[in-house]
Automatic annotation (TrEMBL):
<keyword id="KW-0131">Cell cycle</keyword>
<dbReference type="InterPro" id="IPR026580">
    <property type="entry name" value="DivIB"/>
</dbReference>
<keyword id="KW-0132">Cell division</keyword>
<feature type="domain" description="POTRA">
    <location>
        <begin position="125"/>
        <end position="196"/>
    </location>
</feature>
<feature type="region of interest" description="Disordered">
    <location>
        <begin position="1"/>
        <end position="86"/>
    </location>
</feature>
<keyword id="KW-1133">Transmembrane helix</keyword>
<dbReference type="InterPro" id="IPR005548">
    <property type="entry name" value="Cell_div_FtsQ/DivIB_C"/>
</dbReference>
<dbReference type="GO" id="GO:0005886">
    <property type="term" value="C:plasma membrane"/>
</dbReference>
<dbReference type="InterPro" id="IPR013685">
    <property type="entry name" value="POTRA_FtsQ_type"/>
</dbReference>
<dbReference type="Pfam" id="PF03799">
    <property type="entry name" value="FtsQ_DivIB_C"/>
</dbReference>
<comment type="function">
    <text>Cell division protein that may be involved in stabilizing or promoting the assembly of the division complex.</text>
</comment>
<feature type="compositionally biased region" description="Basic and acidic residues">
    <location>
        <begin position="1"/>
        <end position="12"/>
    </location>
</feature>
<feature type="transmembrane region" description="Helical">
    <location>
        <begin position="103"/>
        <end position="121"/>
    </location>
</feature>
<dbReference type="InterPro" id="IPR034746">
    <property type="entry name" value="POTRA"/>
</dbReference>
<dbReference type="Pfam" id="PF08478">
    <property type="entry name" value="POTRA_1"/>
</dbReference>
<dbReference type="GO" id="GO:0043093">
    <property type="term" value="P:FtsZ-dependent cytokinesis"/>
</dbReference>
<comment type="similarity">
    <text>Belongs to the FtsQ/DivIB family. DivIB subfamily.</text>
</comment>
Length: 324
C-alpha cells in the first residue's frame, strides 16, 4: 500500500489561519495594531486641544470672509420674497376652480358697486346746509336762487360742478362776480361769494336805477325812490366820468357811503373834475373825483369838531365854511 503523503503546506495554512482571521478583524475594526500605536492619555488631551483651536481658527476666518450684502443680493432676496408671494397666490387660486375664481371676483366688484349706489342714495351723500360767506347786500336766499342750489342735492356732484354754479349765478344776478363751493363738513357746503356792490342810483324820468361799482346799471331793479341810503348821481355827461367816480366811491367804507345823499358832477375852470357832494347831515363837500377815496375819509373827523352845518372844501387842503 502506498502511504498518503500529507501536504506540508496544508499544515502551515492550518496553523496560520487564526492569525489571518485576527488580522482581518483588526483591519475591519480600524484598529490595526501593526501599523498604529496607541496614544497615551496626555497625547490624546493635546490632540483634542489642537483640534479645538483649529476649529476656532476656521470659524474666525469664515466670519472675516462673510461678504456684505450687495444690491444683487438684495434684489435676489426681493425676487425670492415676490416668488414666495406669487406662490401663495397661486396656492390660493388653486383652492378654487377657474370658474369659481371668476365668480368670486365678480361678486367682489358687484359688492363695491352696490356700496357706492347705497351711499349715493343715502342721506349721507346729500347736502343738508349751505353756508354763504362774503356778502354785504345780497341775502343767502338770493345767492342760492341765482345759482340754482337746493338742499338735498348730491354732495359730491354739486361740489364737483362749482364752476357751473358760479357761471349760473353770474348770469342770473349781475351783483355776483364769482362764487366758489368748498366742503365745510360732512353735509355742509360753504359758498364764498365775490359780490359787486351797489354804489348809488341814477334817476331817469321818475325811476331810480341802481348802479354797481363796476359801472353797470341794473335795468331790472328799478324803484320810484332811493333805496338803502345810497347816493343819487346827477349831472354826469359821459360814462367815463361816471365810472371814475363810481370806482373811487366804491373804495369808501360802508358807513361813509351811506352818509352821502347825492353826488353832482360840477366842474369849473380851476378843477375840471370837481364834485359837489350833499351829505345826509346837511353839509356839503367839494372834492375832486380822482381824489374822492383819498380825501373823503377825513370828513368824519372834520365835522366831529364842528357845531354847525356848512361846506367842506377838500380840493386843496381841508377848509370848512359855515353857512351864513
Amino acid at each position: 500500500m502506498t502511504e498518503k503523503k500529507e501536504n506540508p503546506h496544508n499544515e502551515q495554512d492550518n496553523a496560520n489561519s487564526p492569525d489571518i482571521q485576527t488580522h482581518l478583524n483588526e483591519l475591519l475594526s480600524g484598529d490595526d495594531g501593526s501599523s498604529k500605536t496607541k496614544l497615551s492619555g496626555k497625547e490624546k488631551k493635546l490632540s483634542k486641544m489642537r483640534r479645538i483651536k483649529a476649529n476656532k481658527k476656521k470659524a474666525n476666518e469664515s466670519d472675516k470672509l462673510t461678504p456684505l450684502p450687495t444690491d444683487q443680493n438684495i434684489d435676489n432676496d426681493k425676487t425670492k420674497t415676490k416668488n414666495s408671494q406669487n406662490g401663495r397666490q397661486i396656492e390660493w387660486k388653486q383652492l378654487l376652480f377657474p370658474h369659481e375664481w371668476r365668480a368670486f371676483k365678480t361678486i367682489v366688484v358687484l359688492l363695491i358697486v352696490a356700496a357706492g349706489l347705497i351711499y349715493l342714495i343715502s342721506p349721507a351723500s346729500q347736502v343738508k346746509k349751505y353756508d354763504v360767506v362774503g356778502t354785504q347786500e345780497l341775502s343767502d336766499k338770493a345767492i342760492l336762487k341765482a345759482a340754482g342750489l337746493q338742499k338735498g342735492q348730491p354732495l359730491l356732484t354739486t361740489l364737483y360742478q362749482s364752476d357751473y354754479f358760479s357761471q349760473e349765478a353770474k348770469s342770473k344776478n349781475p351783483q355776483i362776480a364769482h362764487l366758489k363751493l368748498t366742503l365745510k363738513s360732512d353735509n355742509t357746503l360753504q359758498i364764498k361769494v365775490d359780490e359787486i356792490l351797489k354804489v348809488g342810483y341814477v334817476k331817469a324820468g321818475n325811476k331810480y336805477y341802481p348802479i354797481l361799482e363796476n359801472g353797470d346799471m341794473l335795468n331790472r331793479e328799478v324803484s320810484e325812490q332811493q333805496v338803502g341810503g345810497l347816493p343819487l348821481y346827477d349831472g354826469f355827461t359821459s360814462a367815463k366820468q361816471l365810472h371814475k367816480t363810481l370806482a373811487e366811491f366804491g373804495e369808501l367804507s360802508m358807513p361813509l357811503r351811506h352818509a352821502v345823499s347825492e353826488i353832482v358832477w360840477s366842474p369849473t375852470e380851476q378843477n375840471n373834475q370837481r364834485l359837489l357832494i350833499y351829505m345826509n347831515d346837511g353839509n356839503e363837500v367839494l372834492i375832486s373825483a380822482n381824489e374822492l377815496s383819498k380825501k373823503m375819509k377825513y370828513y368824519p373827523g372834520m365835522v366831529a369838531q364842528l357845531d354847525q352845518a356848512g361846506q367842506a372844501d377838500l380840493q386843496v387842503g381841508a377848509y370848512f365854511k359855515p353857512y351864513k
